[in-house]
Design goal:
The protein is an all-alpha fold. The protein has one domain. The chain has 9 helices and no strands. It has helices spanning 13-24, 31-40, 55-74, 76-83, 93-96, 100-114, 125-140, 150-165, 168-171. The longest helix is centred in the middle third of the chain and has 20 residues, at 55-74. The model has no long low-confidence stretch (mean pLDDT 86).
């Protein structure tokens, strides 16, 4: 008797890299991203069999996603193209994320660009957005303007970006 297949698959390492580049607008040949990709290539899935997916794959995917998100958010031009001009990246984290509108200026472009629409096996943007808002709240909890300057604001946005970019919503197909 033949075991039924899962019906879904995981992207292989080349597809993961290409997807992350396409979704963030960061070139896969940028120095940091390329170096991380080459270093982690063995830790990324080599085929689409979701049943062969192991924790090392997720660690590799997460690390690559962090580098893509870092490259996106630390480059003013890429950041502006992705998020638009409304969010103030120069504010300390306590001020930058103090309202729902400010949090949405980071969350909405990420979910709009990284999550598919009308897919049966994927969370919708409306389902993901409150969770990402909670993640921001947790990453800013305990901050003061002095302890969480603008660099922390960018780090929070990188965390939100990487949480979605490395998620099953992006990696499964």
């Amino acid at each position: 008797m033949v075991e039924p297949s899962a019906g879904i698959g995981i992207r292989d390492f080349a597809q993961i890299n290409d997807s992350m580049a396409e979704l963030t607008g960061v070139s896969p040949t940028s120095a940091t991203v390329r170096a991380t990709y080459l270093e982690l290539q063995q830790a990324l899935p080599s085929d689409s069999d979701v049943e062969a997916f192991v924790s090392a794959h997720q660690v590799g995917i997460s690390r690559l996603a962090l580098d893509y998100c870092d490259a996106l958010i630390e480059n003013a031009s890429l950041r502006s193209n992705f998020f638009g001009a409304g969010f103030d990246w120069t504010l300390p984290a306590t001020s930058a994320f103090s309202t729902a509108t400010q949090r949405d200026q980071v969350i909405d472009p990420i979910t709009t660009r990284m999550l598919g629409t009308s897919l049966a096996n994927q969370p919708t943007a409306a389902e993901a957005q409150p969770l990402l808002g909670t993640l921001i709240d947790q990453l800013v909890a305990g901050c003061t303007a002095a302890s969480c300057p603008a660099s922390h604001t960018r780090n929070v946005a990188k965390g939100v970006c990487a949480a979605v970019l490395s998620s099953a919503a992006v990696q499964l197909h």
